[in-house]
Design goal:
The chain has about 300 residues and is α+β, with helices and mostly antiparallel strands. It has ten helices and eleven strands. Helix 1 links the parallel strand 3 and strand 4. Helix 1 runs parallel beside helix 2, helix 2 crosses helix 3 and helix 6 packs antiparallel against helix 7. The structure holds adenosine-5'-triphosphate.
C-alpha cells in the first residue's frame, strides 16, 4: 500500500492505493464440510487500484463515501466489516471517515472489496498506533474474506487452504496486460457453489506456473495458465470465451478468466500490442470496461 504520510505518530489521515489481483492459476482440490473449498492459486497484484483516503474522527463511528452510489456504505461494505472487526478486537477509541474512489471493476474476480478491506485494516493499524504485524493483520483479515490476507501482502504468491495460506513466490517478471470486464456481475459464492470439485478432469499445472515464474519466463507462465472456475462461469456467459479468443487473436500470449470471473486478462509481449487489443475490444463492444495494466510487485 502506498502511504504518503507515514512515520508520524500523530498521523490522522492516510491515503492508500488498494490494488487489484489476477489469478495466474486457480485450482480447486476439494470441498470442506463447512462449504469452503480447498484451493491452490497463483496470485498476482496488478496496477489497477482503488484510492482510499482515511481520516481519523473523534466519534466511535465509521462513515464511508464512495464515488459509485450503488455500492453499500453500511455493514455490507467490506471496509465497514474491517473497521468493526478491528474495533471489537483491539478496542481503540475514535473512528474513521473513508473516502473511496473505486476504479477496480465490481464483482469481477479481482478482489476489489477484499483489497479495500485489507487497506482499511492497514490504515487503522497505523492511525491508531496498534503496532500490529502483517501476520496479525492477516490472521484477522481472513475472518472478513479468504482473499484479504493476500491483499495485505500482495505481489506474487501461492495461496492454499481456503486462500489464506500464503507462500511468497519470486516476483512475476514485468509484463503488459489487458483486462476486460463484460457487463455481467458474477457472484463468487454462486460459482463455487455450482462447482463439482470431484468432477474436475483437467487441473491446471500450478507447479508448472511456479517453475515458469522461477525461470522468469512470461511466455511459459502464459502457456501454463489455467482456471477451473472457467468451467462454471463460461457456459453461463460465453462472452468470456469470445473475449479470450479476441485477445489471443490480437497478439496475447494467452488470456484467461480471473477468479470466478467474468473479468478476462491477457498477457501481451509489449505495450503497443496491448493498446491495439484494447482498441479492438472496445470496437467489438463485448466488454465495456477495458483497461491496460501491468504486473505490480
Ligand atoms: P473476489 O475477486 O474477491 O471474488 P469480486 O471482484 O468478485 O471479489 P467485489 O468487487 O469485491 O467482487 O465485490 C462484490 C460485491 O461485494 C459487490 O457487489 C458489493 O455489493 C459488495 N462490496 C462490499 N464491499 C465492497 C467494496 N469495498 N467494493 C466493492 N464491492 C463491495
Amino acid at each position: 500500500m502506498y502511504v504518503y504520510n507515514i512515520g508520524d505518530m500523530n498521523m490522522d489521515s492516510i491515503r492508500l492505493k488498494a490494488r487489484a489481483k489476477i489469478n495466474l492459476g486457480l485450482d480447486v482440490l476439494g470441498k470442506r464440510d463447512n462449504g469452503y473449498h480447498d484451493v491452490r492459486m497463483v496470485m498476482q497484484t496488478v496496477g489497477i487500484y482503488d484510492r482510499l483516503i482515511i481520516n481519523k474522527i473523534p466519534e466511535d463511528d465509521i462513515r464511508i463515501d464512495i464515488n459509485l452510489k450503488f455500492l453499500p456504505v453500511n455493514e455490507n461494505n467490506l471496509i465497514y466489516k474491517a473497521y468493526k472487526l478491528m474495533k471489537d478486537e483491539y478496542g481503540f477509541s475514535g473512528g474513521i471517515e473513508v473516502d473511496l474512489n473505486k476504479f477496480i471493476p465490481i464483482a469481477a474476480g479481482m478482489a476489489g472489496g477484499s483489497t479495500d478491506a485489507a487497506s482499511a485494516m492497514f490504515a487503522i493499524n497505523k492511525l491508531f498506533n496498534l503496532g500490529l504485524s502483517n501476520r496479525e493483520l492477516m490472521e484477522q483479515g481472513v475472518k472478513i474474506g479468504a482473499d484479504v490476507p493476500y491483499c495485505i501482502v500482495r505481489g506474487t504468491a501461492l495461496a492454499e487452504g481456503i486462500g489464506e495460506k500464503l507462500t511468497r513466490l519470486a516476483p512475476m517478471p514485468f509484463c503488459h496486460m489487458v483486462v476486460a470486464k463484460p457487463p455481467i456481475n458474477v457472484s463468487t459464492k454462486m460459482v463455487y457453489d455450482s462447482l463439482d470439485s470431484g468432477a474436475i478432469t483437467k487441473h491446471p499445472d500450478i507447479d508448472g506456473i511456479i517453475e515458469a515464474i522461477n525461470e522468469g519466463s512470461v511466455i511459459k507462465i502464459a502457456e501454463r495458465m489455467g482456471n477451473v472456475l472457467e468451467d462454471v462461469t463460461i457456459p453461463l456467459y460465453p462472452v468470456i470465451d469470445k473475449i479470450k479468443k479476441d485477445m489471443i487473436s490480437q497478439g496475447a500470449y494467452n488470456a484467461m478468466m480471473s477468479g470466478s470471473g467474468p473479468t478476462v486478462f491477457g498477457i501481451f509481449p509489449d505495450e503497443q500490442t496491448a493498446l491495439n487489443c484494447k482498441e479492438y475490444l472496445k470496437r467489438q463492444g463485448d466488454a465495456r470496461q477495458v483497461y491496460i495494466t501491468e504486473t505490480f510487485n
